[in-house]
Amino acid sequence: MTGALGVAGALLGILVQAALGLGWLVxxxxxxxRGAVLRVTLWGALFGLGSLLFQRWGLSLSGAPxxxxxxxxxxxxxxxxxxxxxxxxxxxxxxxxxxxxxxEAITAVTVVSGIFGLQRALHTLLMVPGLSGMQVAGLxxxxxAQLLVSSPWAFMLGRSYQRSNPRSGFLPAWLASVVLDGVxxxxxxxxxGAALAAVGVLLAGMLLLAVLARDTLRPGAAKMRLRRVGPGxxxxxxxxxxxxxxPVKLRWVxxxxxxxxxxxxxxxxxxxxxxxxxxxxxxxxxxxxxxxxKPVLFLxxxxxxxxxxxxxxxxxASGVSTLLEPALASVLALVGLGLVMGVAAPVVxxxxxxxxxxxxILSCAGAWFGLR
Length: 372
Description:
With 372 residues, this protein is mainly α. The protein folds into 2 domains: 2-217, no CATH class; 238-370, no CATH class. The chain has 12 helices and 2 strands, in the order αααααααββααααα. A hairpin with an 8-residue loop joins strand 1 and strand 2. Helix 5 (133-159) packs parallel to helix 7 (193-212). The termini are far apart. 44% of the residues are buried. Residues 1-7, 22-27 and 219-234 have low confidence and may be disordered.
């Protein structure tokens, strides 16, 4: 039964990834000819298999049990190998000037990510005789994660033709994708509801970022635009995150860190009190069954709601005209939370990293409504 469930889960994951890729091709219609797609496919299959073999080799050298990926190995080997292999598969097309924009680059990384996801799904099905429900759920989440995690650096790689500084922004985006790739691998290997819920939150955040960046994917577009409810022209999101006319108000950044931490603490305490009133059993968080999803999602939702509140309060109190101070405050608050909690349990650090994109977006959204 579990074997059939695993095969069904793998097929469903493949269909999900194929739907994402086909939807992208149909709606965006990139200018990437078939010869380039064929070369990217071949390079993707080669480098994907090589990275998978090296990842398994590193796991065997670490002495970790089968199916367990330590956090240091996920961040130090899993992520760099995975994202490095994808970049290597795209590099010949990039040097041949076949990736002339974000559309073409993301299309190419969609093809490569689909191959990577397929290879890893088949490896899991062949190496694990009987898949549990959590393993199937991890398989379903890991396959679209291959695409969504790699999209930021592919976007910046395609934008390099439209910038005076071709490499600006690419390296930070690639390093962020490396960290997220490693975090996804670590959380999926945990086979716990808490870890898989964090992966789901990460995928939701990456999809939200894709929606915000959709305007920049149009030919000739260069801005990420937002519109308030009601009349008014669009606003360039990057202009709201830039500080050109005045220095950063460090005092309000530090105040914002305290406000974020205080809001997060109040939200978690309130979630526990409300959960106890509603009969939510938080002791189930440590379980590996589906019963742990309810308390985990309850706490994650409450924690994420603290960030737009803090962003709104900091922006309204400081009177700033950009989102830079609230965004920096939320980033520093997340870094402090990850460092403190990660000492006690590495899985908490991974969960914080996975939830960071959504938290940052929500903080900026709250700050945007707080602008005068």
